[in-house]
Amino acid sequence: MVNGRDIPITLAELRERLMEMEHTLLTTGVTSSASSSSTHVTVSVKGQDEEEHRVFWMRRNEKMRKVMERYNDARGAEWRTYVFLSEEGSNICEDKTPDEMELKDGYQIDAMLHQHEGFGPSSIMF
């Protein structure tokens, strides 16, 4: 049960409520480090076989491995099932933090299934 309802809230509703809370905190002058927008970032992950994004909220000094692990857990997949790519198409290093990568709030990451073996001319036997 969420907010007295038997159905879960949608991603859009959740995002709207978080933005309202952030606005309230910023306008009332509350400066708690846990609620400060400068200490956290929202990262969106989209799998190649999914239509919707999965949104993760993380600390800016947390390693990207945390998001990768949480995404794998949410999909019921083992570690290293997916390769995570930046918006520019390069691999995301699991040891980097959002601050080190200079990520903005709402950054989108693509999760692609890791290909262990390929099919090409070198694998054809005559």
UniProtKB/TrEMBL annotation:
Domain Rad60/SUMO-like: 42-113
Pfam families according to UniProt: Rad60-SLD
Species assigned in the record: Raphanus sativus (Radish)
Protein's name according to its UniProt entry: LOW QUALITY PROTEIN: putative small ubiquitin-related modifier 4
InterPro entries with a match to the protein in the record: Rad60/SUMO-like_dom, Ubiquitin-like_domsf
PANTHER family: SMALL UBIQUITIN-RELATED MODIFIER (PTHR10562)
